[in-house]
Amino acid sequence: MDKQKISVIGLGYIGLPTAALLSSKKFIVNGYDIDESIINTINQGKIHIVEKDLEKFVSNGVKNGFLKASLELKKADIFIIAVPTPFKDSFTPNIDYVLEAAESISKVVEPGNLIILESTVPVGTTKKLKNYFDELGTNSDELHIAHCPERVLPGNIMNELIFNDRLIGGINRESTKIAVDFYKDFVTGNILETDAKTAEMAKLTENSFRDVNIAFANEISMICDRNNINVWELIKLTNQHPRVEILQPGPGVGGHCIAVDPWFIIDKNPELTKVIKASRERNISKEKWTYEKIISSLDDKNNQITIYGLSFKPNVDDIRESPALNIAKKINKKNYGLCVVEPLLSKNQLKQMGFNALDINDASKRSGLHVILVSHDIFKEKLVSLLKDKKIIDMVGMLEQ
């Protein structure tokens, strides 16, 4: 039996790994994106993002003829929507990219096709997607539509796409069953069946839960700082309790999931989300607190600052919603002689952002204050010795490790 044809809409941090993995299973995969430079990069067997093992999958998929990227959406048996779902300035969800994907699909879709929404979305979006196809003149009753939210960790995506449990909720039982059968072809984790609305809420709940727990850790870190207590030692000790597991604090919370998804719940349930909203606000305020701590720690004799790390988490190049980047931008507006060290971004990228970029060896020699905002592995290997006897603010407890 011939393998099904797959079209993946959106070739970013989720779409490209998904497309590459499917191509390794010998599905015929067309990756669709509106960015021509991304298309050209992928068709050369290369990647435009940093992700462990991804380039090997992409290179093999292109070389073996199972993966091709295109500016044109092709007909397929299965369409996977993996586009961003940001929020607007007022923290209201923006699903425009999802609806634009539906418009593109409606031009080539055929009865019996399966449409999978992997983007994280507000509750009710999968049903809205179904209704939108009807508005576009496509009979949605002839389509199978399901939500399967991604649940992967940047830096380990290729493994987690295979081994993590997946949650699938269709607009009806038949859609759920067909989507489950598809994911069983490449997922070894458990496939958990539900309805679309519950699947949507489950993903939002997972990330809101994490945001709430990080907010607690961040708040404790601020209290410890005021009382001259080593928060890293405190957390290590308290986590010896069999029913306590405090997470690691940092300069805030970033990424396109934890820093965004709670707002999708808050937006529709403002009067019921006091804890979720307070946690989101605490994690945002940790950025301001970190900035003020940096500025208040400057020495009049040498007010130059070096910041180590701009991405939202270690060992990735993803800077979306990054508190480290926000803090660096704010400092860069002042006359503090800021330089940044971010080994996962090119010096040209950093220059375009307006930063003075140095390598780790040069940067360690020049500033009066060294601020660690991201614990990249390369920092762990070098900074302990390079920053010996330097003035340091370690916001991620890297040197404690």
Description:
The protein has 401 residues and is an alpha/beta fold. The protein folds into 2 domains: 5-195, Rossmann fold; 297-401, NAD(P)-binding Rossmann-like Domain (Rossmann fold, 3-Layer(aba) Sandwich), CATH 3.40.50. It has 15 helices and 12 strands. The protein has helices spanning 15-24, 36-43, 54-63, 96-106, 125-135, 157-163, 173-183, 196-226, 231-238, 261-268, 274-296, 323-332, 347-352, 360-366, 377-386; strands at residues 5-9, 28-32, 67-70, 78-81, 114-117, 144-147, 166-170, 191-195, 305-308, 339-341, 369-372, 392-394. The strands form 2 sheets. An 8-stranded mixed beta sheet has the order 3-2-1-4-5-6-7-8, sandwiched between helices. A 4-stranded parallel beta sheet has the order 10-9-11-12, covered by helices on one side. The model has no long low-confidence stretch (mean pLDDT 96).
Give the helices and strands, then pairings:
Blueprint: E1 5-9, H1 15-24, E2 28-32, H2 36-43, H3 54-63, E3 67-70, E4 78-81, H4 96-106, E5 114-117, H5 125-135, E6 144-147, H6 157-163, E7 166-170, H7 173-183, E8 191-195, H8 196-226, H9 231-238, H10 261-268, H11 274-296, E9 305-308, H12 323-332, E10 339-341, H13 347-352, H14 360-366, E11 369-372, H15 377-386, E12 392-394
Parallel strand pairs: 1-2, 1-4, 2-3, 4-5, 5-6, 7-8, 9-10, 9-11, 11-12
Antiparallel strand pairs: 6-7
Helix pairs in contact: 1-3, 8-10, 8-11, 11-12, 14-15
